[in-house]
Amino acid sequence: MDEAEETKTDFTKLRQKMDAHGVKIDSCTPGLYDLLVCPKVVANTKKPNPAGDLHGKTNSNSPSTRESLRLEALGEELVDYFAGRMISRETLQRNKVMKVSGEKKIIAFTYRQNGLLVGCKYRTIDKKFWQDRGTEKMLYGLDDITEVDEIIIVEGEIDKLSMEEAGYYNCVSVPGGAPQTVSIKELPSAHKDISFQYLWNCKDYLDKASRIILATDGDTPGQALAEELARRLGRDRCWQVNWPEKDQLSSFKDANECTANPPPTSRLSSSQAQFIQIRRGLLFSAFSLKPISPSHQRASGYSYTPHAALPIPRPISSVNLETCDVADPKPLSMLRQKLLEIGIDGNACMPGQYNGLFCPQDRGAAMWTCFRAKCGWRGTTRAFADVRSTFARMNRIITVKQPIREITEESLQLEPLCNELVAYFAARMISKETLQRNAVMQKRTGDQIAIAFTYRRSGELVSCKYRDITKKFWQEANTEKIFYGLDDIKEASDIIIVEGEMDKLAMEEAGFKNCVSVPDGAPPKVSDKALPSEREDTKYQYLWNCREYIEKGSRIILATDADPPGQALAEELARRLGRERCWRVKWPKKNDTESFKDANEVLMYMGPDALREVIEDAELYPIKGLFNFKDYFGEIDDYYHQTLGFELGVSTGWRALNELYNVVPGELTIVTGVPNSGKSEWIDALLCNLNRNVGWKFALCSMENKVREHARKLLEKHIQKPFFDVRYGKPGERMSVEDLEQGKKWLSDSFALIRCENDCLPNIDWVLELARIAVLRHGVNGLVIDPYNELDHQRPSNQTETEYVSQMLTKVKRFAQHHSCHVWFVAHPRQLHNWIGGPPNMYDISGSAHFINKCDNGIVIHRNRDPDAGPLDTVQVCVRKVRNKVIGTIGDAFLCYNRNTGEYMDIDAASQII
To answer: What is the CATH number of domain 655-857?
Structure first.
């Protein structure tokens, strides 16, 4: 019996075994994953709809293909239908929009990943939808967001096509439409989040984006969908579109309506024109119109659909082995012979392609698992074994550690370097003496010669790494992983670690023999996981194998490559070796835009002296939280030359206060005063001055003000006219409707509101998190928290209020410093006994003396209430603490309060107006 007949017999035997378990494998291909109907639950499977076999279609018996789904190119009737919706033929072809064979009016939107057909969604012209069952849920247009930083998510496939017509290819559509309402339940875990499983299945694509624009429909379900997406993707990186008005009563519903029926640009107001981008009638609002909410969960974890994690088969071109263009067929023949010796027929295999074959030991085996949660049926069987199946964990991989090989130069057929390779090294400034000392050799493989870097311990050959002229590397299998040049650091207190063998040789040319190279190159990025144990740290096993050498080093210089993988390698080494004894090099500049990459480049282009200088100038490896003034010399120079901006603070806008108090980014100002003394009014006036003079923006967490009342106060100060016909001051001209419209735009541009819309009390962490988002999203320069006693101050039973206030103010100060954002915190004084009308002290603040101890600036606002003591419109601003003498000092200033407009003015300026 020939091998083909044996393979056929094996497959027949395996089919019989699988039939005994109820599993039909006639459509299966050896070596590939196949989706089949579970025999345990097939009775519960709904029967296909006989009307065209489309609406209830189950496509689990074979991979999705154009033929299996009966798809064909769109007819002219459907192309015309899309043209009427402003979708071009080119866009349809690019997105492979098709139709069902034999059905004139059933559109098929093909869902693809890496170009391969994964599923299909159908639509009739009268807007009836259905999808193939048994296919993975994913976003439509997934391949268009493979490597993008900004993603647009729409609600339907036609909206995705419309976005493309508007020039936005970085767009995807959800597969399942929108929910009716927002769920009031907590976010489910990944495997329970059935309705939004497509987000988890596409997690790797979505997590790369820093900005996600939610362009869902303008109706209630569409807005509910946007809310559900934002909850899962993270509100801090989500933006929401504001569909433009269609007429006075309604707005456009979605992207396709905007593209097909663009509004006249004359209907845009100036405020819309500033924030709305127009491209073929498609308009996007640049800022979310909904209040920001802190409760969010970034998409993380893995898909619950088990087959979603399986490797997606790549299309294999049909190539005949006899006509295959192989440069040298001799190695292929030798490989086939080697495979035959262990029982593997390689005649059916193609070079460079994966092939599915039967294992010669089993002569055929299968394993299965049912993805239906309530079923859980799984098992394995072999073609030539007893009928009983064995049960095991499906994803468990058992690795057998191979014994370490003993190798010699003779067994590896190594030989001295030829003159051509010596000349190659000489061109890279590596001398023949250095090559001989490091036992650099060569190995012949056919007509080619490879450089052999011999890895030795105590002079004995342990491993060998090869490199050809084109920089292709490979190593001897089953040899111990150690540093290259290990014997050179046997008694060294200073050790240099480089990324490649050539760099090790270059270091020796510069006079540094105490250098080793890692054997396996650099990782693409730093791992975000905790350090593994010695047994599990396979990538860096060479560190553990050379531990007795490394532990003697008191100073380790990491001279890895300057590219991102090289810097990732330095970080991984420092994590394991101890940052406290690590130093790092700074490679010199090659030109204005880039630096030299590694030691050998510096040696070649700048010489050994320059490389020696790089090592001698190595800097301490940074440790989080530990710095040197040298790290801040640039900032100190900018401070001295006043190039940072705001070094001496920003003027409050009142001359009387200029010598006492100026506003510095990153500081905390505590404002207090007895009730009804005008603390909040004064802060609002200060914000208006800062906005008018230097253009600052602010986040307002004002819990005592209704939004409309706070808007009135700010508008009166900004426009300098009363909001109403005056009831609270002298008669004056009320602001006009035009003033109001301009003022509303100013409010929208200058302020972000932090408000808790439910009955819960906000805590300081909630406020600071939203303030952080406001800094990133809107670029705010200042935060107002007014007042302290409106926050939720739950604390552990063993923590005093003084300890709590200290901890809270520390958080506020860290936020201010980290985001260069000035914070004004309003705190009421405790009940004052025997008060005689004077301004309170900062130590009178209710709660703790830490309010004055920990703040940068302390201000008391006091208003005269006694007509005999002076004018009632005079306000006393008492500066009671200024930590930084550069920006002010302790003292009192007096301002005049205009009750009509809420403005504060210098007294001399107020007298001139009067």
So the answer is: 3.40.50.300
At 624 the pLDDT is 83
Q: Are 483 and 546 in contact (CB under 8 A)?
A: yes
The pLDDT tens digits of the residues spanning 465-480 come to 999 877 788 999 899 9
**pLDDT at position 545:** 94
Structure tokens at 810: 């520390």
Picking from 733, 497, 502, the residue whose alpha carbon sits closest to that of residue 603 is 502
Strand segments (E) across 446-518: 448-457, 460-467, 473-475, 494-498, 515-517
pTM of the model: 0.55
Residue 319, pLDDT > 80, answer no
Q: Cα–Cα distance between 910 and 654 in angstroms, integer? A: 12
Q: Which of 48, 44, 42 is nearest to 22 (CA)?
A: 42
Q: What is the pLDDT of residues 877-906, one digit of tens each?
A: 999 999 999 999 999 999 999 988 899 999
Contact predicate 166/279, CB 8 Å: yes
- Cα angle 218, 220, 224; round to 5: 100
- Is 90 exceeded by the pLDDT of residue 481? yes
Answer yes or no: are the C-beta atoms of 723 and 716 closer than 8 Å.
yes
Domain ranges of the chain: 71-258, 409-620, 655-857
Residues 737, 743, 748: CA angle, nearest 5 degrees: 130
Residue 197 parent element (H or E): helix 197-201
Work out the pLDDT band at 401, boundaries 50, 70, 90: low
Who contacts 753 (Cβ-Cβ below 8 Å, separation ≥6)? 291, 699, 700, 707
CATH of domain 71-258: 3.40.1360.10
Q: Residue 729 carries which DSSP code?
A: S
> And the tokens for 274?
């500033």
Q: What angle do CA 893, 895, 897 make, to 5 degrees?
A: 155
DSSP state of 500: S
Question: What average pLDDT does range 430-457 have in this prediction?
Answer: 93
Q: Which of 493, 596, 474, 510 is nearest to 549 (CA)?
A: 493
Torsion of CA 867, 869, 872, 875, to 10 degrees: -170
Q: Identify the pLDDT of residue 5.
A: 60
Contacts of 348 (CB under 8 A, 6+ apart): 355, 357
Using CB atoms within 10 Å of the CB of residue 303, give its burial: 0 to 12 exposed, 13 to 18 middle, 19+ buried: buried
What is the number of other CB atoms lying within 10 angstroms of the CB of residue 894?
16
CA distance 250 to 109: 30
Q: How far is CA 484 from the centre of its chain?
A: 36
Task: Quote the tokens at residue 139.
Answer: 């976003």
Q: Is the pLDDT of residue 228 over 70?
A: yes
Helices 707-719/679-694 angle, 10° precision: 50
Amino acid 105: pLDDT: 83
Average pLDDT for 428-455: 92
Lowest-pLDDT choice from 60-74, 239-253, 270-284: 270-284
Mind giving me the DSSP string for 512-560?
Answer: --SEEE-SS---SS---SPPPPTTT-GGGHHHHHTHHHHTT-SEEEEE-
- For residue 195, give every residue at least 6 positions away whose Cβ sits within 8 Å of its Cβ, in sequence order, or none: 176, 179
Kindly state the DSSP code that residue 51 receives in the 8-state scheme: T
* Average pLDDT of the chain, as a whole number: 81
- pLDDT at position 908 is 80
Q: Is there a cis peptide before residue 787, judged by omega within 30 degrees of 0?
A: yes
Strands 891-898 and 874-882: antiparallel
Same topology, domains 71-258 and 409-620? Answer is yes
Label residue 140 exposed, middle or buried (CB < 10 Å: 0-12, 13-18, 19+): buried
Q: What pLDDT does 760 receive?
A: 77
- In the block, which residue shows the tokens 């009638």? 281
Please state which of the four CATH numbers 3.30.465.10, 3.30.360.10, 3.40.50.10090, 3.40.1360.10 is assigned to the domain occupying 409-620.
3.40.1360.10
Biggest alpha carbon distance in the chain? 121
